[in-house]
Amino acid sequence: MENHEYYMNVALEEAKKAYSKGEVPIGAVLVVNGEIVAKAHNMRENNQQALHHAEIIAIEEACRKIGFWRLDNSYLYSTVEPCVMCSGAIVQARIENVIYGASDPKNGCCGSKINLVDSNMFNHRANVISGVLASECSQLMGDFFRQLREEKGNSVK
Among this protein's residues, is 55 annotated catalytic? Predict the structure, then answer.
């Protein structure tokens, strides 16, 4: 399965849904055996739940659909490099491949700060591919935070 741009575009559509809801625009898609089994976007603000990152929601949905916690032969697409929480869930769910768009130098745990998903310290390791549609993913994040700053600046007056 090498259609990374197709699946990242699906994840970008999820990220745009998050954006429209005032959420940090991150989308995730989980593909197992070449089939999309879960799509999700950040819902932390709307649900007031610290755990409601796009990747976590997608992993939960995929496990529910498959009926098993091990996501063998899987690809997780995320528009932004997964954080420490999501990286831990990736290892626990035995996700085999992580593909992300934009790097996160402050919080990324798939290569930027640390690489938890490909560490020999755990019994499972995931392959990581970074930079798929990176400019589109970064642009969406930049637009979101620019708009947020502008709105905060206007409300201070």
Answer: yes
